Amino acid sequence: MRDVQIPPVKIGPINKLLSPLALGSFIFGADAWRPAARAQLTATLQAALDHGITHFDTATGYGSGQSEELIGQFVGGRRDQIFLASKASIDEMDADLMYRRVEESLARLHVDMIDLYYIHWPRQGKDIRPMMEGLERARQAGKIGAIGVSNFSVANMEQVRQVGPIHAHQLAYNLFWRFAEAEVIPYCRQHNIAVVTYSSIAQGVLTGKFGRDPQLPSGDNRGRVVHFDADVWPHIYAGVEALKPLAQEVNRPLA
């Protein structure tokens, strides 16, 4: 089978062409400060860059800000090569507080501008427009280049678009999790909103490495994911096993 060349992508008004793959940093958490773990994570960042992956994604909630710190220390003089994305949410709907979250991220990342900043989660039952107001103010001030949302419904997006633009939507999407195809992705396509996916290989499930009785290390956050629930896993496992012959036919790894 011939290799497929996927063209670079562009997000919002940021004048950078990106590889269609990004490096997420959800696991860059508290353990990252152990010397061995820190060295491994730094090597991961360098390997991504060496393979043309220039889009690094983090969040204030990843390791209570330590993910941003680690990436910020790595970026250093490489800033022009890297597209930085981060995220935050607030419980009190206060535009000033959301603006401060951006400033805190800037400090941890050791940069003066973040390319893309997301509202990480909507707050159901609340007027979430103040979060967008804070980000739009940060964009106008040159502290962020583009605005994103994450885990939003169409109704959520309609609400915040009253006060600011959405340039990207980050959502969970993989072969086993396709709800976004019904409404959210068509809405994004209609309104020229870039779709950025997370959990694209279902927390490693779609690598095919897990057996009939998956054993996750103690403290592994994936233990909270629905895929690994006792009543769900047998169906997930059967689905992965059914996909393996298809991957073999085209001589490609399952992931």
Count of beta strands: 7
Low-confidence stretches: none
**What share of residues is helical?**
25-40%
Termini, distance in Å? 16 Å
Q: So what's the CATH class of the largest domain?
A: Alpha Beta
Mean pLDDT: 92
Going by CATH, the homologous superfamily of the largest domain would be NADP-dependent oxidoreductase domain
Pattern of helices and strands: EHEHEHEHEHEHEH
Q: Structural class, please?
A: alpha/beta
Largest sheet: 7 strands, parallel
How large is the count of helical segments? 7
Using the alpha-carbon principal axes, give the shape. Answer: globular
Please report which band the strand proportion falls in: under 5%, 5-15%, 15-25%, 25-35%, 35-45% or over 45%.
5-15%
The second-level CATH architecture of the largest domain is Alpha-Beta Barrel
| CATH fold-type name of the largest domain | TIM Barrel
Spatially, the strands of the biggest sheet line up as 1-2-3-4-5-6-7
Radius of gyration: 19 Å
What's the structural domain tally?
2
